[in-house]
Description:
This protein is α+β, with helices and mostly antiparallel strands. Helix 11 packs across helix 17 (584-610) and helix 17 packs across helix 18 (614-659).
Amino acid sequence: xxxxxxxxxxxxAANTRxxxxxxxxxxxxxxxxxxxxxxxxxxxxxxxxxxxxDMFVLGMNMYIADTGNKRVLAVDLNTMEYRIIGEGILTExxxxxxxxxxxxxxxxxxxxxxxxxxxxxxxxxxxxTTPNFGINxxxxxxxxxxxxxxxxxxxxEGSTAGIIFMNGRxxxxxxxxxxxxxxxxxxxxxRAVLTERQQSRFLRISPVAYAHIFRGEDGLIYTANRGSDVxxxxxxxxxxDLLADTGSMTxxxxxxxxxxxxxxxxxxxxxxxxxxxxxxxxxxxNIFGGGSGNTERVGLFASPSGIGVDDKNRLxxxxxxxxxxxxxxxxxxxxxxxxxTKLYEDGRYLxxxxxxxxxxxxxxxxxxxxxxxxxxYMQLLDYKxxxxxxxxxxxxxxxxxSFWELRNAWLRTYLGYVMLALLFLFVLWRAVKIADRxxxxxxxxxxxxxxxxxxxxxxxxxxxxxxxxxxxxNAYNIHAxxxxxxxxxxxxxxxxxxxxxxxxxxxGFIFSQDPDRFSxxxxxxxxxxxxxxxxxxxxxxxxxxxxxxxxxxxxxxVVYGFSPVLLFMPLVILFAxxxxxxxxxxxIIFTYVLLIWSxxxxxxxxxxxxxxxxxxxxxxxxxxFFFMLVVVLALSILxxxxxxxxxxxxxxVTEVMLRV
Length: 660
């Protein structure tokens, strides 16, 4: 094979100012503008590229799949000298990769080629002929990653079975890490009702094909799919995606991915030109770059198709349309973050803490700075300060771990005193009860209760304790006019609303919503409309189906039915404030028990006041829910029509004013 070694140095244009904003993850949970992470410092222009579709950087070597020129360029990033590999052999190189032994792997249109460190062809990976590969399975390599024995992981265009895995002798070993099948609601319904034969004809669902692959220093395989709303996946040896549950930011139209030795993940979007950097757990570090449009600004891209990072932390981005490579260097802030995380990983927590403290002086909204500060305090057993940083970073799970440690320390210190205090209160209460039986020291309480019972509102309000034991009798008393009034019902309803608000924002940091994001107006609107809609619709349905309940009766039965929530939910809220995620299942169970208990109370109360059988009550409720849905849909349609008419009228008025 003929290898041409080029001694000339590619053109290099320097620039030290960023031409795009840098965004990072903020403590609010959103993305906000922050200090520059990388600045464009050079352009490699004289490589003679023609529609290059991929680039791979390993150490201080760069490999470019120069598709239009049917070759691969190997660039030494120390000297900027380059040489040509595969000329006369390659026909349409789409992807390129390399390993630590200097071997170069090229994904061509119909095969994958492996070249040695000198550029000589070692092995050609051709289409497998074994039955387990599949007779009709496509073999159109577009991306490639090496394995330890000189074998390859191949992304084949249109292959939905997964990544093709071949060993160092060119033998097919199987498919690796196929995507999960995603079905719409309509497809799920069709799958449930169609036979297997009908499904084979009318319901053909295939997983999404992979588009990019990278093998990291950790030996794990990183991939990205085609299309929109995709994310980088990190696959274990068994093919499981280790980043599936991290909730990392989604990407659109990925052009290429790269993973650094310390686990940072880079991705560039082909269409928008944005560059994404994630840390090894999937958290977004920063976003920068962008599309160049009709300009020729350094730092922006027309169609980026390759990305890589060398040992000096310099970032390189290949532009397929403009046929050059742009180079970025990290800023001081970015290098500080790299150093701080490296020190943390090495166990040098105090040094890492000092760097992060300096970073927070200039940017106290940095999510990652607070994340690592909290972790450092955790390692130093300073759980109080860890708690503060995890709360600022809005990390309930890590906050829970710190709180668990603080709670354990508090219990070890004060549990004995708490038990003694409870024992003292119990003994005191028993002594008061004995003294009351002898000398009647609590007689004033009985007289006060008797006095209060003279007021109807007091009796109606205290009836909530009676509902707990006798829901049917209470419904009868409501229907007979012995219990309940609109004043009492509205008071209980207001108390339920307060309980609802507290359950949303008052269950502690771990279980509550962020008060700044909680819409009090929407909560009030839903809390008023939905119950009253249920009461109104059920009343009219009862009038049609011979129900005996009045509007007032139904309203009071619903309100009193939630007595378990009113009486016991405050205890659940208090318990949530001293709980961790380990006790989350108890909070969920208690909440559902109270809601089911309330639903049963309402069911039996409606059955009593309407004088329905069990079947009639179920039918009445189903019809009620159906017509509630109809009313909501009708109101939504009316709202949209009114909104369109308003917009139309506004446009007419605007047009008339402009013409006048």
